Amino acid sequence: MSTQDIPEEENLPAEQGAKDSGEVAVPADPFADPGVPPHELRIQDIDDKAARHSERVVATLFTVSMLATVGFIASFAALSVDKIIYVFPLGHVSALNFALGLCLAVALFSIGAGAVHWARTLMSDHEIVQERHPIEATPEARAQVFKDWQDGVADSSFGRRKLARNTLFGALALVPLSGIVLLRDLGPMPEDKLRHTKWAKGKRLMNQNTMQPLRPEDIPVGSLTFAMPEGMSEHDHDFQNQIAKAALMIVRIKPEDIKDKRSLDWSHHGIVAYSKICTHVGCPISLYEQQTHHVLCPCHQSTFDLADGGRVIFGPAGHALPQLEISVNAQGYLEAKGDFAEPVGPAFWERG
């Protein structure tokens, strides 16, 4: 049959014929894979001078990161926490916090910017298409992975661009120092403050409730009295810090009931003075059993024997209550003969 014998509509394209017949046309492949676009060379790929310039930019960013980290540490050491500065538009801010935040932000940003610039200008940007494969890798696949890794290292210029590589190592090595320095900001160093209280030779024992100096006759047998050093006031700016170390409890025990010789020597006619601060976690001790001469910490039930050097007889406390040596002055008032012989309160790592 010749083309002249074919009806006119049979000579139309498939889409036109479907349109005329009222049917929906379906393209042969509506989701055709366009493939990977043609690779375009960057200027760094064809111009070694441009590549060296990009490497210098990367190295500069990493160097800026290192300098910012050094600035972070220097700011922490040099600036006072009380210094206030005006920064627009933030207003009045702490100079230390502003310097630390700015330096740390620059250090981290510079590492990130340097890594991105390195990837975009110096590392290979060839698109690679790889078919999916079974989860269990074959020996050939593993060999291919190692080869791809080696090719990636070569493409990244990591071995060839030594300036960028070495400055990256330097930046990454210094940035963690910021975190180490921040540990210093957990609080002021105690130095020897934990070893000293407001007690000193000649300071009278003041009743913490009446704020009057104590005489031996003010303390009957079996009583528990709380005292603090002469010269302290609740209006002092550091009163809470000082009383947390100097708080004292006083009891009167018959001298023949005192078992520890040093406790007897440091007492006055059976009046013994011990730190009120529990040696477990520093809770104030306030419960006294006059028949046994035991005091109980209400927090975790550590129990101490005041007739036997304040030693621990029960509970989690780690060591005995420190005792304060006392005597009576010429006016008949109880006074301290010095400070506690050992640090009060819980143990700490520097304690010998």
Automatic annotation (TrEMBL):
Domain of life: Bacteria
Keywords recorded for this protein, A-Z: 2Fe-2S, Cell membrane, Disulfide bond, Electron transport, Iron, Iron-sulfur, Membrane, Metal-binding, Oxidoreductase, Respiratory chain, Transmembrane, Transmembrane helix, Transport
Record flagged with keyword Amino-acid biosynthesis: no
GO cellular component: plasma membrane
Membrane disposition: Multi-pass membrane protein
Cofactor(s) for this UniProt protein: [2Fe-2S] cluster
Entries under InterPro entries matching the protein: QcrA_N, Rieske_2Fe-2S, Rieske_2Fe-2S_sf, Rieske_Fe-S_prot, Rieske_Fe-S_prot_C
An example Gene Ontology molecular-function term: 2 iron, 2 sulfur cluster binding
Membrane-spanning intervals of the chain: 57-78, 98-119, 166-183
Domain Rieske: 240-335
Compositionally biased intervals (Acidic residues): 1-12
Coiled-coil blocks: none
Principal cellular location given in the protein's record: membrane
Compartment annotation: Cell membrane
Quaternary structure and interacting proteins, as annotated: The cytochrome bc1 complex is composed of a cytochrome b (QcrB), the Rieske iron-sulfur protein (QcrA) and a diheme cytochrome c (QcrC) subunit.
Protein family per UniProt: Belongs to the Rieske iron-sulfur protein family.
Function: Iron-sulfur subunit of the cytochrome bc1 complex, an essential component of the respiratory electron transport chain required for ATP synthesis. The bc1 complex catalyzes the oxidation of menaquinol and the reduction of cytochrome c in the respiratory chain. The bc1 complex operates through a Q-cycle mechanism that couples electron transfer to generation of the proton gradient that drives ATP synthesis.
Protein name (database record): Cytochrome bc1 complex Rieske iron-sulfur subunit
